[in-house]
Amino acid sequence: MLSSWSLLLALASYAVSREITFPPVAGIQHPIYGFAVDEDAAELDITMMMSGITTFAHLPYVHCLANESEDVEKYDIAILGAPFDTGVTARPGARFGPTGVRQGGIRIGAEFSWNVYTGRNAFLEGFRVVDCGDAPLTFLDNTIALKQLDKAHKVISGRKANHTGYTVPRIITLGGDHTTTLPALRSTYHHWGAVSVIHFDSHIDTWDPEVLGGGLSHYAGVNHGTFLHIAHEEGLIKNTSIHAGIRAPMANKKYDLKNDKACGFSILTARDLDKFGTQGIIDKLKERVAGSKVYISVDIDVLDPSYAPATGTAEVGGWTTRELLTILDGLDGIELIGADVVEVAPIYDNPGETTVLAAAEVVHSLIALMAATPVNALS
After folding, report:
1. Is 201 annotated as a binding residue?
2. Is 301 a known ligand-binding residue?
3. Which CATH code is given to the segment(s) 35-372?
4. What residue segments make up the domains of the chain, in order of their start?
5. pLDDT tens, residue by residue, 112-152
6. Is 203 assigned to a binding site?
7. Is 178 annotated as contributing to ligand binding?
8. Is 45 within any annotated ligand binding site?
């Protein structure tokens, strides 16, 4: 049996062996991954994922909507939130989409974003990408809100780009419901003229405003199902535009498709992917928009609800997230002058944040497409 003295010595030895020494408390959070070393032995600071304000992919925040008299940091690609959802015909909630997509992008960081498929890092290709925050939009009057978004796009795209190779910054909008694409197309027209739209969606969104909402009032006719019809009427888009992923039912047996064609669109249905494969879809999209400037609009409901439940008008039978990302990456080389990801309504997501994670990665792919091909503006 151990004596009392021996027992005390044993306990003291155990206490010493279990002692933990903590580093000094610093006022600055250390990077979560420490430091990474590139091929040239330069240290790259990997941003702490859970610290700081939540911008998309931890991008620097720039007050892009500051008064003209204020100095604003230059940028080449701007992320702009459009918290608007009073143009929906089904479930509301997309006004919180910009916040949701930023939350979904919290694990993305500039220094830690080398693409395993392409070997590229879109954030490190010489273009300054920033988060401009959200446009200040009223939720009480659609007409005023859309005018506010018109102005936000005008201000942000009206600043001189940081890159010396071209003059006009490009914008990726985080919706918001799909009505928010209309102000974006008005903005791109000002700088690049009419564009071909690649529209990823389960719905055609070219419905005649007189059919969808306009029977009540002109005000009601401007919504997330008519904005492409209106864009066509305003001359913003070319007759070389195309839908991809369509599967939702039509309101009229013949008129809807006839009107859609008149608005300048051809259609790739969701099940066309089964016939042509991802490469076939890529080839058809590129062929359709060849020789023109391109705007890409991604309604997150192009994905099947099993991959993106958090949306206003979910339609079963859609694409997987991997299929959509493969198609987007395959569009490398197009002259992409603007883009958006819309209809993300985080309240309907699951605890695993399936939808916002997918939406954030789509934004990442859109940034890569822009970084791959600079585009000079007409004005």
Report:
1. yes
2. yes
3. 3.40.800.10
4. 35-372
5. 899 999 899 999 999 999 999 999 999 999 999 999 999 99
6. yes
7. yes
8. no
